[in-house]
Design a protein that fits this description.
The protein is 57% helix and 6% strand. It has a three-stranded antiparallel sheet, with no helix packed on it.
């Protein structure tokens, strides 16, 4: 035998109200067997507002599913393409700077004359 008190439960009274088993009114004290109420806590359902609006506007479920599936893939592909183009632009700038530096330093009088001609052409465009 244990000396522990009886656990407190939530019970539904015959009139439909709920009460703790240790706080029952005198009329319901032990006249009827209390019913144990099992409460289940569920997660909220996912928000499907966008899908409902899309389906309500007349496009089919297949189109919505394709947008959900291919939307993130498209963002990933475009990001990869942009990263590749940025890398290529950086590489082109570095190579152009390298060629310019080599031609200017090693080219002798012809290289200096070519650099001077390019400088003049750039000034004229401004």
């Amino acid at each position: 035998m244990t000396n522990l008190p009886e656990p407190v439960r939530v019970v539904q009274l015959p009139d439909g109200t709920y009460a703790y088993s240790d706080q029952l009114p005198a009329a319901f004290e032990r006249s009827a067997v209390p019913q144990v109420v099992h409460q289940h806590i569920h997660q909220a359902p996912p928000d499907r507002t966008v899908q409902r609006i899309a389906l309500g506007s007349g496009i089919g479920a297949g189109t919505v599913a394709a947008g959900v599936y291919f939307g993130p893939l498209l963002v990933g592909v475009l990001t990869a393409i942009a990263a590749n183009l940025a890398l290529l632009a950086f590489l082109a700038a570095v190579l152009a700077w390298g060629v310019h530096t080599v031609v200017k330093s090693i080219g002798g009088p012809d290289g200096k004359a070519a650099a001077k001609t390019l400088r003049r052409a750039r000034k004229r465009r401004r």
